[in-house]
Amino acid sequence: MDKPLNKRRKYQRLARLYDLLDLPFEFRRYQPMRREMWQGLKGDILDAGVGTGRNMAFYPEDARVTGIDLSAAMLAQAHIRKEKLGTDVTLMEADIMDTGLADDSFDAIVASFLFCVLESDQQLPALRELGRICRPGSEIRILEYAISENPMRRFVMALWAPWVWLVYGAGFDRRTEEYVAKAGLDLVEVRYLFSDIVKMLVIRPR
Ligand SMILES: C[S@@+](CC[C@H](N)C(=O)[O-])C[C@H]1O[C@@H](n2cnc3c(N)ncnc32)[C@H](O)[C@@H]1O
Fold first, then answer.
1. How far does residue 51's CA lie from ligand 1's centre (Å)?
2. Residue range 42-71, pLDDT digits in tens
3. What is the 118 CA–ligand 1 centroid distance (Å)?
């Protein structure tokens, strides 16, 4: 298992380069997904694994958003984006498996490309923590990669996988949905937002 400490170190080093490395994918691939992920959400919202704040441009206007991340260096980049965009968001350093936030804090939780960074044995504790801090009737939206069924795309993903692991500590095959019921949550929808390789899981507390 790659411990949170190792992930923190990785993102501490990556923080200044993160937006640049993601640039080829951000505008054409990710931004339409981010828009869809945040659509219709309101109230108190958690941006879990906020990173450099790529979601900020899509926060609903009247929402009160809190962004948490394991890496102070990623949060420093998020602070720069917050100032630049004039976004009203509270940023905090916290581990998604043990946030220290109060029970029933949020009306919605959004996690984009966080669960593909968490190892298999971190999926369940992270989902349990999300279940604890979200309110009854709330919605959890998780955006992550999946391995394509298409042989050609599968092959290309297999070529990319070592780089994605080395640079981001991420995997394409985390299968987060398999842990949802065990965490005491309901999976209500799996919506593919880019081909069959990026999906949004819509989850509700029971
Ligand atoms: C691939 S980046 C995604 C960032 C952002 N959500 C986005 O869509 O661009 C993953 C982020 O999750 C953070 N992270 C990794 N493990 C974490 C954990 N256990 N708790 C909180 N954040 C974590 C990393 O520091 C990094 O900023």
1. 5
2. 999 999 999 999 999 999 999 999 999 999
3. 9
Structural domains of the chain, count:
1
User: How does pLDDT run across 167-189, given as a tens digit for each residue?
Assistant: 999 999 999 999 999 999 999 99
Looking up residue 49, the CATH number of its domain turns out to be 3.40.50.150
Q: Which domain holds residue 170?
A: 4-205
Pocket test for ligand 1, best of 75, 91, 117 (most atoms within 8 A of CB): 117
Confidence label for 22 from pLDDT (cuts 50, 70 and 90)? confident
Collect all residues with Cβ–Cβ distance below 8 Å to 126 and sequence separation of at least 6: 96, 97, 114, 115, 118
| 95 in contact with ligand 1, CB cutoff 6 A | yes
| pLDDT for position 1 | 52
106-112 and 134-145 strand pairing: parallel
Ligand 1 atom nearest residue 95's Cα: 20
**Can you say whether the dihedral through the CA atoms of 189, 194, 197, 198 is positive or negative?**
negative
